[in-house]
Amino acid sequence: MTVYLLAGGGTAGHVNPLLATADRLRDRDPGSEVLVLGTAEGLEARLVPGRGYELLTIPRTPFPRRPNGDLLRFPGRWRATIEAARTHLRERGVDVVAGFGGYASAPAYRAARREGLPIAVHEANARPGLANRLGARLTRHVGVTFPGTPLRNAQVVGFPLRREIETLDRAHSRAAGAAEFGLDAARPTLLVTGGSSGARRINETVAVSVERILGAGWQVLHLSGGLREALTDPGLPGYRIVGYTDRMELAFAAADLAISRAGSASVSELCAIGLPAVFVPYPVGNGEQELNAAEAVGAGGALLVRDAAFTPGWVADELVPLLLDPARLAELSARIASVGHRDGADRMVDLVLRARDEARR
């Protein structure tokens, strides 16, 4: 029996591909044991047990960004965190470690190296994080979502998708999607989403511009996100505001065009199912969202609008003409699908199994 340890967490961008890979490992190697290494504070503390996996925890040990007392204490804390990870590896008889970024991955990589265990790495973003830059130095088995990701030994495997997205037939599920959200399946639908916590610029611009969008003959499914981004529903026919849905596959099925942030999961899902998009990258951080969208935009399957430029004026001048051009929308759909991967979970599992088998040989 193989014991797999998948390490990662903190945000959905790390946890979701980890869980998709865990599910596929369990499908393909049903006699194995799949464990998850994370922290008690991250999103994994809720999502991992809820998915039926055992979560092993280590201390959250971020690298200090400023020269202060935390920096002086960091080396000791770092060593202790690695030793905690090594204890889990030895006590549970782990055979292979796969990391997905986040606070738990770097200690897991270092612990696995010291225990002589094979390592596989998955990087979701086009600009890799610190943990996976470390992991990529310790193994040849490095999977990335986007081409051009600057990691040693990187090979494109795509983003491990949830089964509901991976198997989605948008045309077949369109009626179910429209019914789920109270939409008319015969009318084109614009899906607006800024992620689970919402996106202020997207929400505000769409709210101001919705009558113009409806006037183009479209309906709007607006996933507004968290409470801090709540919108007042004007009660317009064809405009549906939903705070959050756990049936995202049905939202995709109902849609003909999406306006979205450019997190790696969002970009990967839209490419995989061939849903054309207007990407409005999150303007804070290291710019990885714009890089995430680059392949889809370069292929002619999506438009990219910087946050500050996504205004009612842009909607009037650029979005509405697009909504009125079905031939262009069809071309966008074909082009974005050309860079999509539906088999990211299987390809990542292949990488993990290669790491395991080469170590055994």
Question: What do these coordinates show?
Answer:
The chain is of the alpha/beta class. It has 2 domains: 3-161 and 342-360, Glycogen Phosphorylase B (Rossmann fold, 3-Layer(aba) Sandwich); 164-337, 3-Layer(aba) Sandwich (Rossmann fold), CATH 3.40.50.2000. 46% of the residues lie in helices and 15% in strands. It is built from 14 helices and 13 strands. It has helices at residues 12-28, 44-50, 69-92, 105-115, 130-136, 163-166, 170-181, 200-215, 248-254, 264-273, 288-298, 312-323, 326-337, 344-360; strands at 3-7, 33-38, 54-57, 96-99, 119-123, 142-144, 154-156, 189-193, 219-223, 239-242, 257-260, 277-279, 302-304. Strands 3-2-1-4-5-6-7 form a 7-stranded parallel sheet, sandwiched between helices. It has a 6-stranded parallel sheet with strand order 10-9-8-11-12-13, sandwiched between helices.
List the helices and strands and how they pair.
Layout: E1 3-7, H1 12-28, E2 33-38, H2 44-50, E3 54-57, H3 69-92, E4 96-99, H4 105-115, E5 119-123, H5 130-136, E6 142-144, E7 154-156, H6 163-166, H7 170-181, E8 189-193, H8 200-215, E9 219-223, E10 239-242, H9 248-254, E11 257-260, H10 264-273, E12 277-279, H11 288-298, E13 302-304, H12 312-323, H13 326-337, H14 344-360
Parallel strand pairs: 1-2, 1-4, 2-3, 4-5, 5-6, 6-7, 8-9, 8-11, 9-10, 11-12, 12-13
Helix pairs in contact: 1-14, 3-4, 4-5, 7-9, 8-12
Q: What does this entry show, briefly?
A:
By secondary structure, the protein is of the alpha/beta class. The chain has helices at residues 12-28, 44-50, 69-92, 105-115, 130-136, 163-166, 170-181, 200-215, 248-254, 264-273, 288-298, 312-323, 326-337, 344-360; strands spanning 3-7, 33-38, 54-57, 96-99, 119-123, 142-144, 154-156, 189-193, 219-223, 239-242, 257-260, 277-279, 302-304.
